[in-house]
Design a protein that fits this description.
The structure is a single chain. By secondary structure, the protein is an alpha/beta fold. The chain has 2 domains: 318 residues, Aldolase class I (TIM Barrel, Alpha-Beta Barrel), CATH 3.20.20; 127 residues, Dinitrogenase iron-molybdenum cofactor biosynthesis domain (Nucleotidyltransferase, domain 5). It has 17 helices and 17 strands. The longest helix is centred in the C-terminal third of the chain and has 30 residues. The protein is globular, with a radius of gyration of 23 Å. It binds FE(8)-S(7) cluster and iron/sulfur cluster (SF4).
Length: 502
């Protein structure tokens, strides 16, 4: 048996295209043409692997919106690309350019500048395009990216293409106006407010037209969809099928975030979001039709840093005004660091190829045998390594190991139990919350873990493991899975290939 790291297509087909059978690379980008690989290899949202190494930032230059979604109110970030939370500062294009250069000089791993709100970037075309125009001239080594609800997209495609914007996200929650009317109470179109099914129909037509126009021009399109249980959850499989057919590159199904305190319609009405399991199930079902993004962090419209971290506080307007930036010098430094990451990734790829040739050392009975998949949680602070203390994790990455290999499934947010207040019970509840968030996992890999959480995790049937600290994530998961096989932990679930295919 060979264990490898699966890309989305391979995992979907049940491991049908392994490296040994077709010679393709096993990383997530291995199956793509070179021109597309070039566009996505350092984009943290378009490449799952890149998000461990490269950072993105958003500049909040777009306050207005031309539609209303039931999961948003204007006081909060755009739920297209964010979690609820007001943006700290709205920027002018000039401030946005300064901030981008300051971040790029300070965080050389920053490769992508996105405009994602807090309203809709294309409903604020002057501010959005002024920012893009200046950045494409003054910071040419940064990729530009935009996220939109799609209503104004067809009219903006030419200008997006002119500024070399290679990545566009459209939030498409439905292709049926009946369903759309339950998500969008109104749109603002041709100087009029339009409501109900008629509004949803116009929005859907504009989104689909915009998608087709972008694909015609070779611009990569990612489609975001908000999963709203009981409203569009079943329907999103159809959305996935259609956008794939039209040439979208990636589909990102995100969970609805709705809390009464956000003041959104859904929040106030008690509309629930999906559970981790429901989200995973839908993503798996949609994956039959296209590549799925599973590492989205629903960023704020002013997020800065690696996905999942937010360093925005380091770059407030007053702080960047005081910074002296020599951008030419910064570009040289960035190029060296990017080259170093490229070498590290090439090295990782070589190791993957070597791993693919490793056989599980547990005797002939393992050959031609499948074992049940095992879900494992990982605490990491980036770099694709197991390098975080269990108690410092604010999220866990969830992987599935199976006879076909390792695949990333989702991330789960948690509160840091170790900064909770010992005296008022917060610590216990945060720890209990962390353990609950790992439901379904059998192992948690971290760099270190305290005695108390160790015991509680074991009681919950989750094996803590600190033996693979500072090792690459996939290699460690493969090693743990192989050990579980070799020590007979998966014996009760062993199924022969003949039974599997029957
Ligand atoms: Fe920003 Fe969006 Fe560009 Fe990424 S985010 S505009 S594509 S640079 Fe990324 Fe954040 Fe998810 Fe968006 S993790 S919310 S998908
Ligand atoms: Fe809010 Fe974005 Fe919807 Fe506009 S498109 S209402 S900003 S979520």
């Amino acid at each position: 048996m060979e264990l490898t790291v699966l890309n989305e297509t391979q995992s979907e087909s049940g491991g049908g295209c392994s490296s040994s059978s077709c010679g393709s690379s096993n990383d997530q980008l291995g199956h793509l043409p070179d021109a597309i690989k070039e566009k996505v290899h350092n984009h943290p949202c378009y490449s799952e692997e890149a998000h461990h190494y490269f950072a993105r930032m958003h500049v909040a230059v777009a306050p207005a919106c031309n539609i209303q979604c039931h999961y948003c109110n204007r006081k909060y970030d755009c739920a297209n690309e964010s979690r609820p939370g007001v943006v700290s500062e709205l920027l002018t294009p000039d401030q946005a350019v300064k901030k981008t250069k300051a971040v790029a000089a300070t965080i050389p791993q920053m490769t992508v500048l996105g405009i994602a709100g807090p309203g809709d970037p294309l409903a604020n075309p002057e501010r959005t395009f002024e920012t893009f125009r200046r950045l494409s001239a003054e910071a040419p080594d940064i990729k530009l990216c935009v996220s939109t609800n799609g209503l104004a997209l067809p009219d903006a495609v030419e200008e997006l293409a002119q500024h070399n914007i290679d990545h566009v996200t459209i939030t498409i929650n439905c292709v049926d106006p009946e369903i759309g009317a339950k998500i969008y109470p109104w749109i603002f179109w041709n100087n009029r407010r339009i409501r109900g099914k008629k509004a949803a129909k116009i929005l859907i037509e504009q989104q689909q037209k915009g998608l087709e126009m972008l694909v015609e021009r070779g611009i990569l399109v990612k489609v975001n969809s908000v999963m709203i249980p009981g409203v569009n959850d079943d329907h999103l499989k159809e959305v996935s099928r259609i956008v794939k057919q039209k040439g979208a590159f990636l589909h990102n199904v995100m969970p609805l975030i709705a809390e009464a305190e956000h003041g959104t319609f859904y929040g106030v009405m008690g509309q629930r979001g999906p559970s981790n399991e429901e989200l995973m199930e839908l993503q798996d079902e949609c994956a039959g039709d296209m590549n799925m993004m599973r590492h989205c962090r629903q960023c704020r419209a002013d997020a800065v840093g690696l996905l999942g971290e937010d360093r925005g506080d380091e770059f407030t307007i007053d702080k960047i005004e005081e910074m002296e930036i020599d951008y030419d010098e910064a570009m040289k430094k960035r190029a060296v660091i990017h080259q170093g990451i490229a070498e590290e990734l090439a090295e990782k790829e070589k190791k993957r190829a070597a791993l693919a040739a490793v056989k599980v050392p547990s005797g002939p009975s393992v050959e031609n045998t499948n074992f049940r998949p095992v879900m494992m949680a990982v605490a990491t602070s980036g770099g694709g390594m197991i390098n975080q203390h269990f108690g410092h994790a604010t999220e866990f990455l969830i992987y599935e190991a199976s006879s076909q290999g390792v695949r990333f499934i989702q991330h789960r947010k948690v509160d840091q139990y170790c900064i909770g207040n010992d005296t008022c019970g917060e610590k216990e509840s945060a720890l209990a919350g962390s353990i609950r968030s790992l439901s379904g996992c059998e192992v948690v890999l971290c760099s270190k873990i305290g005695f108390e959480p160790w015991g509680l995790l074991e009681e919950a049937g989750i094996q803590p493991n600190g033996e693979h600290a500072m090792e690459p994530i996939e290699e460690a998961i493969i090693a743990v899975y192989e050990e579980m096989i070799a020590t007979g932990k998966l014996d009760e679930s062993r199924v022969s290939d003949t039974q599997m295919s029957a």
